[in-house]
Amino acid sequence: MKAVSLLSGGIDSPVATILALKKGLEVHAIHFAPATLSSTAREDKMNELVKVLKTYGKFHYYVCPFKEIQKSILIYVPSKLRMIVYRRLMFKIGERLLQEINGKGFITGDSLGQVASQTAENIRTIHSVTKKPVFTPLLGKNKQEIVNLAQDFLTYKISIMPYDDCCSFMIAGHPELRSTIEMIEKIEQGIDNYSALIEKAKIEKV
Q1: Do residues 29 and 203 make contact, with C-beta atoms less than 8 angstroms apart?
Q2: For 29, which of 5, 18, 94, 164 could close a Cys bridge (C-beta 3.0–4.6 Å)?
Q3: CATH no. for residue 146?
Q4: Is 155 exposed, middle or buried (0-12, 13-18, 19+ CB in 10 A)?
Q5: Is 5:107 a contact under the CB 8 Å cutoff?
Q6: Interhelix angle for 120-127 vs 82-101, to 10°?
Q7: Residue-range definition of the domain harbouring residue 47
Q8: Is 38 helix (H, G, I), strand (E, B) or coil?
Q9: DSSP-assigned letter for residue 51
Q10: Count of domains forming the chain
């Protein structure tokens, strides 16, 4: 079975990806490259992470430049809601790759209640943007359990290298914790060329 992983440079999503690989899934991972980190630093870190991930199974790696999308989000979306809109856009862009590979669903590093994007309400709002299954291998694990797995899988030291991912770019110090689908859909309807942002986003295989 094929699936698309939304792969950040943090601790959680590489662990979730490895768990999927260990289950025998063929994983096609997209990394959304932020506007806040030099390309060299990002590439060095992600290349090291990808080397480890490839040792666990059939793994393919793609990069999607996210700078132009971030610029639009900054204009139209309040800072406390940007992280949610960022993540919903990642799913919409990822659906293009999912269709291309005839994949069955997404893999994420979501762990219930750890950060603002992972409250029950925000997970529901984010995942509702896609009709495809979303597999969350870490959902019931706490942070220390995930760190322990990352250390066992040899991704931890890479994951803690300095990194500002897309979802942390210009968001509020206290993001929205109790979003609703209706709230976010209304915001998205006000984004100029929203559909074009999704259609024009480049997904480049590395």
Answers
A1: no
A2: 5
A3: 3.40.50.620
A4: buried
A5: yes
A6: 40
A7: 2-205
A8: coil
A9: H
A10: 1
